[in-house]
Write a structure and sequence with these properties.
The chain is an alpha+beta fold. It has three domains: about 10-120, Tetratricopeptide repeat domain (Serine Threonine Protein Phosphatase 5, Tetratricopeptide repeat, Alpha Horseshoe); about 145-215; about 220-290, SH3 type barrels, CATH 2.30.30. Helices cover about 50% and strands about 10% of the residues. It contains ten helices and five strands, in the order ααααααααααβββββ. It has helices at about 10, 15-20, 25-45, 50-70, 75-85, 90-105, 110-120, 135-140, 145-175, 190-215; strands spanning about 220, 250-260, 265-270, 275-280, 285-290. α3 packs antiparallel against α4, α4 runs antiparallel to α5 and α5 (about 75-85) packs antiparallel against α6 (about 90-105). The longest helix is centred in the middle third of the chain and has 32 residues, at about 145-175.
């Protein structure tokens, strides 16, 4: 059963200041209202589908207002929006928002499981699912600011240890018994922690280099309606790439975006997991990670 993640605690800190300045509903009230409307849609989906779809649209609109009007965006909001689209069988938008949720929290297994399930509802899949590698998932789970500051802190600690070691060695040398000739015995701070800190700093910095050399690919998904994929960026000059339009929810990697040949508007070159390629009109697909 598809359920909402309310996370009212996240929004509760906004309630006091928001209600004091305006009569508009607070983010917590919007999230609660959206969840309630979504539950009503679930109850109606079998008996009155038209009414259920209206409530789904209301629930989605409320959740999207948290992003557009209140600047609150997290994995739970996109997860809720994706679930609502999934209930309405709008699989293209559901896949889009599951990907957006994973971009916010790559480690959320519930989101990944829901995405895998919705993929089974999408016809015309062109090859196996396009999932992130384990390396990419692990890196994306660590905020960039953490990956920047960790090597800086480690290097500062390393140099601080080296300076302290030099100072202490000099102090001990001056006060040492002149009959002691084994200078190796005068080592208040050993070298191995310095090498450990240097190694950890190098490993941490390498994750940033990995992002620069192998950035996460932009993903695309067909949304809202079947899209005609073509062999080139033009409707007049190129034939369709497939015998029928591509279903909403089909995913691909974005290789190129360019202006059309014979008409205004952009075209997107996508590569599917079976290595076939095709061009889509920009308005028929949604790009994730661009």
């Amino acid at each position: 059963m598809i359920q909402f993640k309310l996370l009212l605690a996240i929004f509760s800190f906004l309630v006091g200041t928001s209600s004091a300045q305006t009569d508009a509903p607070s983010p917590a009230q919007i999230a609660e209202r959206s969840s309630m409307v979504f539950q009503e849609a679930i109850e109606l989906i079998e008996s009155d589908r038209a009414a259920a779809l209206d409530k789904i649209e209301e629930s989605i609109s409320l959740m999207e207002s948290l992003i557009s009007e209140h600047g609150i965006e997290n994995a739970s909001i996109h997860f809720n929006i994706a679930n609502a689209y999934a209930l309405a069988e709008r699989y293209g938008r559901a896949v889009e928002h599951y990907h957006l949720a994973l971009a916010q929290d790559p480690t959320d297994q519930e989101v990944a499981d829901n995405l895998d399930y919705i993929r089974t509802r999408v016809p015309d899949q062109l090859g196996p699912p396009l999932n992130r590698s384990r390396t990419r998932t692990a890196l994306d789970a660590i905020p960039m600011r953490v990956r920047v500051w960790v090597p800086v802190v480690l290097l500062l600690a390393m140099w601080g240890m080296l300076i302290a070691r030099a100072v202490l060695r000099e102090r001990d040398r001056r006060h040492a018994d002149p009959t002691l000739v084994d200078e190796g015995r005068i080592a208040p701070i050993p070298l191995w922690p310095v090498w450990v800190l240097a190694s950890l700093a190098l490993i941490s910095a390498s994750t940033i280099a990995f992002d620069l050399l192998w950035p996460a690919p932009t993903m695309g998904v067909v949304v809202d309606a079947p899209a005609v994929a073509r062999q080139g960026p033009s409707e007049g000059a190129y034939d369709p790439a497939f015998t029928r339009p591509v279903s909403p929810g089909v995913e691909f990697r974005v290789l190129e975006i360019r202006d059309g040949i014979d008409a205004p508007g952009q075209w997107v070159l996508g590569e599917f997991s079976d290595e076939r390629r095709a061009w889509f009109r920009r308005g028929s697909v949604s790009l994730i990670g661009s």
